[in-house]
Each structure stands twice: as C-alpha cells, then as structure tokens.
Amino acid sequence: MTKNAAWPEGSFLDSLATGVLATDPKGKIVYANAASEILSGASKNRLLGISAEAVFPSARRWTERFLSDTVRGEPTLTERTEMFCPSNPTESRKVRVTVSRFPGTGGILMEVSDLGAVLIAENEAQKVGLSETSRQVLRNLAHEIKNPLGGIRGAAQLLEGELTNPELREYTGVIISEADRLQNLVDRLLAPYRTGRSLSDINIHEVLERVRQIILAEFPKGLSFIRDYDVSVPTLRGDREQLLQVFLNIEKNAAEALDGKIAEGTAEIRVITRVAQQVQIGLRRYRLALSIHIQDNGPGVPPEIRDRIFYPLVTGKANGSGLGLSLAQNFIRQHDGSIDVESEPGKTDFRILLPLSPPETGDISPA
C-alpha cells in the first residue's frame, strides 16, 4: 500500500510511547507509528491497509459513530475504552484506547496506551501531588512556628535570669534546649528551599566515590561496598551538592539499617550504574538516562511505611527525622528524574533515573 503523504517517515509520533493509528473513511488503517507495532503485536507492514476491526473489534462501531452525519459538527467528540488487544494474544496486554474523528484522513484516530504504564504514571503523578502538598504544608507550618518559638525561648531566658532555685532553673534549661531543637528541625525543613541550584557537568562516579568515603569513615568495620560502575556513563548536567546529598541520605540510611549485619561483618551496600535507553520518566520519554541502583542486604523497609517512605516526617528509625528521603526525592525531581524503592527482608533497592538527554518531542499523554 502507498504510504499516506500526511504521515512522512521519521514523524515525531514515532518517538512517543503511545500508539497512534489512523484510518481512512472506510476504516482501513493508513498510518501506524512505532509504538502501535509493540502494543498491537503486529508489524507496520501488516497493519497498513487492513481494517481497524482486525485489531480492535470495536472499530466498526467507532467508525459508524464518529463518521456519521449526526456528529460531523462535533469535532471534540471522543471515546475511551480499555481492552485486551486481540491481535496480540500471546502478550495478553491490556490497553487503553482513545478514539476521535480525524479530519486529516477523513477517518478516525486511535491513541493506544499500555494500561499498566498509564496507571503507573498516573499513580506517580498522584504521589507527586500528595508529596508536594505535604511539603508545602510543612513549609507554611515551619514559618508559622518560628516566631512564637523565638518568643518562648526568649521568655525562658529572661525567667531563668530571675530564678535563684537551681531546680527551677533546670526547667527553664529544658525549655531553652527543646526550643533550640525545634528551631534546628524547622531550619532543616526550610533549608532545601533557601539555596539556589548550581549546575555543572558532573562525573557521577566521583560523587558516588565521595559518598562512599564519607560512609566508610563513619562505619569503618563490618561494611563492604560493592561498586558495579558502567565506565561509559557520560557526564551529567546537574547540581553536584544536591546529588551528593541524595546519595549520602540513601546510603547513610542503609548503613544505619545494617547495624546488626555490621556487627557480624556481613553488611553490604551495592551501587550499580548503567546507561538506559528509551526511558520513560513520568510522562516524558528520553533517549538516554542514567540508572543508579543502591542496594543493601538489611532488614528492609517496614511494610507499614513503604508507600509513604518519601513523605516528610515518615521514618522507620526511632530517632529519625523523616526528612532525608523526602529531601532526596525533592532534589531528584529538580533534575527531572525519578526515585523509587523495592524492599523485602534481605534486600532493599533504591532506583534513581536521571535524564542524560533532552526529552523527546511530545509528552506521553495518558490517553
């Protein structure tokens, strides 16, 4: 079949993770992008020229509905449905299909998304919203706390100067020390939002080696570092101090969780770097990204906090503040990256993705 001139080779649609198929007025497919081949399980040569009904049984109904005379004046009419892709039975892949009328061919346009990937992206977006809301509430709360906290401390100091009873002065000392502790906590909450970013070209392995030296200085015995670095990783554009803080927070948490194994001499932290190709981060697709895994053989993240581990003030440590991983997530997002964790007893794996190339044309719309 002759290719439609409206769809030249190398179209930006081939860079999308969303499948795009277009039909003529009779329902025959005249265009299919690269992702549609993966999602349908059929090659482009096989798709072009066949009836859309051979791929999606509902296509006849879609054609009748969207191309009927009664809806020709409704250009925004769309339909969304979820189904298993019948032309790809071995994959048993469930897809989400959004259908609309497409004047470019006089037929219909079908946008096909892997339902699993869409739900993951939507869930991540929801978590981002909740986490950012939590951080905003904390920032506002921190500002509201600072002024009365200073007043309480000042009043306690004045009262301490008037007291002659040593036992009573102990009480004012407690007030002052607790006020200082709360002040430090508030400062830590606000610190990430006070400093600007300083971007430069970074050798990520130099950052990781610096973090390793810091951790081993604090835990010199019983802890082994296993480095599995990909030496082909190119430089990364980012804020060196922010990224150093990210890996320091994660690896220090890991080392502290390994205290029992450190005593036995069996504690391990493994750091893996790789270059990943054609990676989806959020709703964007990147040709190249840096994948970093930080793994430990500790007891794992407690199940009751696993889904909230990146939220501010959520911690599994008795004396933890719950700010380290929240801060790490915030810094990674400032680099347009993502961070997630998988954990079970004996293995916790933090995975970080950081773009190494600009996003490809067009976001991945959860069609």
TrEMBL record:
UniProt cross-references to InterPro entries, sorted A to Z: HATPase_C_sf, HATPase_dom, His_kinase_dom, HisK_dim/P_dom, HisK_dim/P_sf, PAS, PAS-like_dom_sf, PAS_fold
SMART domains referenced in this protein's UniProt entry, alphabetically: HATPase_c, HisKA
Coiled coil segments of this chain: none
Enzyme Commission number(s): 2.7.13.3
Enzyme kind, highest EC tier: transferase
Molecular function GO labels: ATP binding; hydrolase activity; phosphorelay sensor kinase activity
Region forming the signal peptide: none
Catalyses which reaction(s): ATP + protein L-histidine = ADP + protein N-phospho-L-histidine
Top-level division of the source organism's lineage: Bacteria
Gene Ontology biological process terms from the UniProt entry: regulation of DNA-templated transcription
Positions of the PAS domain: 13-74
Keywords: ATP-binding, Hydrolase, Kinase, Nitrogen fixation, Nucleotide-binding, Phosphoprotein, Transferase, Two-component regulatory system
Domain Histidine kinase: 140-358
Keyword Heme: no
The protein's role, per its UniProt record: Member of the two-component regulatory system NtrB/NtrC, which controls expression of the nitrogen-regulated (ntr) genes in response to nitrogen limitation. Under conditions of nitrogen limitation, NtrB autophosphorylates and transfers the phosphoryl group to NtrC. In the presence of nitrogen, acts as a phosphatase that dephosphorylates and inactivates NtrC.
PANTHER family xrefs: SENSOR HISTIDINE KINASE, SENSORY HISTIDINE KINASE_PHOSPHATASE NTRB
Listed name of the protein: Sensory histidine kinase/phosphatase NtrB
